[in-house]
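Field reference: sequence -> structure
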Amino acid sequence: GITYAFTTKKGIFSLFLQKAYKSVSSSADVMEGVYSWKISKHLSGWLIVVLFLLSLSGLSQPFVAKKRLKTAGQTFTSFDGTKIYYEVRGQGEPVVLIHGFTSTGESWKKSPAYILLLQNGFQVITLDLRGNGQSDKPHEAKAYEQNAEVKDVMDLTTRLRLKKYLVVGYSRGAIIAAELITKDKRIKKAVLGGMGPDFTNPEWPRRILFYQALRGDSVPELADFMKSVKDRGLDQVALAYQQKAQPATSPTALAKVKIPVLVISGKKDNDNGIAEDLAKLIPYGKSMRVPGNHNSTLQSEAFAEALTAFLLSGL
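Structure field:
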């Protein structure tokens, strides 16, 4: 047969055109990142060309089992009747990824961290926090109060029957994760990305400004942000309530956390305070800096490698 091999950063893609088979078969070796197809001599030439061109479309992507990536998302009804959208991919040690403000679980799926966690045998769980994406977007303040988002994560992990799990939050997702680790004893390790200690202040000026802008006040410094909210068709009311009810986990509560916590930020990211100062509030906290700013760090390979290594260590 004829063999075409293409080398990429993540692995080798091989397409085998065999003439000695009467049927089409496929196999995938996830660990090596190699897909191979045996194509019957009875297939017409044009079909072979089509299959070949389709195969090229994935050459630049990391090699993860395609069947796993096609898993459909689901919704569950949380403690107060709010429907929350989530996805579960892979098998192994479960990791819950919590997205940031004005985002969804899709932001994680586009990141190197998501792929690297799957490649290292983790089960990766993403969700759209209430008020975002495919989850319900209640227009009542009480739907976001009393740590409703934290309760959603706990309800989800209970629904999935997780006895133990890991959690990673980025930006506002780190704020939710920080409150979560003070309440859920099932968590073994946590990663707080893109965050310093500023959120521990109940009167954090940054949070208040975002809330004021989202409820309709004139906040000139957030004009570009508000334009983005409108251009993207986001639910401004739901976002406002998220900011209003955002957790402000106290240093006293963080001091009682007894699990390993990695606080990791970009070298140019002090948007929410100093990462090192947040790590000092947690008994087993450690801090790390990787290249990038607040917006770019989530998409960096250095961030992905650091959090994956941390979660793998000691497991």
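Note: The chain has two domains: 2-63, 68-312.
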